[in-house]
Amino acid sequence: MAETTSPTKRSPRKWLLTQNSDLRRIGVYNWTLPAFVVTLPDGSNFNVCPQAGACAKLCYARVGTYRFKNVLAAHIRNLLLCRDSPKEFEERMTEELSHRRYEGKWIRLHDSGEFFSDEYLLTWMRIMDSVPAVGYYCYTKEVSRFKRLVENQQPDNFLWCYSLGGKEDHLLDLETDRHADVFPDLEALISAGYSDQSESDLLSVLGDSPLVGIPANRIKHLLKKQGQETFGSLQRAQDAKLAAKNSGAPRELTLAH
Length: 257
Ligand code: SF4
Fold this sequence. Notes:
By secondary structure, the chain is of the alpha/beta class. It has helices at residues 21-25, 69-84, 86-97, 118-130, 143-149, 186-191, 203-206, 220-226, 231-247, 251-255; strands at residues 28-31, 37-39, 45-47, 106-109, 135-140, 158-163, 179-183, 195-196, 211-215.
């Protein structure tokens, strides 16, 4: 017997934006890409986080549920859509965000992944302009890209927080640029003078203090690797090591600083 489809039955809508339990609690929706270097279906590799530095070895989005086959496949589909079909991505995302379920809500861009190109960042800024009833925020390590393309010309509904642990940390003024650092625990972030955002991720962009502290994810082997360091301190050590190598300075002279 031939299969029939009821004319009234519609296939369920496929949303591009999702919510994990933490973000659902505060009413935020999320756009996710894979983290760091990912192997695509055609066998090529692509770095979604070009400025990732010390963070890459401690990234929660490179372990656990993010690596589940179906989860990673969905994130790769997102990447291929926005990277390879930017026009279609812009149209679909603009249409989705115009749905009433997003009105007055916040969208977090990239709990994993980054603004991997100028074109992709500019696409998002056009989407933000087209759907002003929605708020958008992100953490980013793409410091030079943001300073060049976003700072002082951002859409009114876009907020961001730089995050330490990337190759461009040195471009930030840690006193004035809003930024986040990941600490081994709550006590460490408070004693460093940072403000805890655990209660709501939105505090990263809406909180009074521009110094945003994040207690490290409770993933045992990553905690062990991080030790008492922060993502920022690990990056500074990595930068110093590289500078010493490039200048050819003897190791003991570098350590004397
Ligand atoms: S930039 Fe973010 S998502 Fe990318 S490797 Fe670093 S911590 Fe992970």
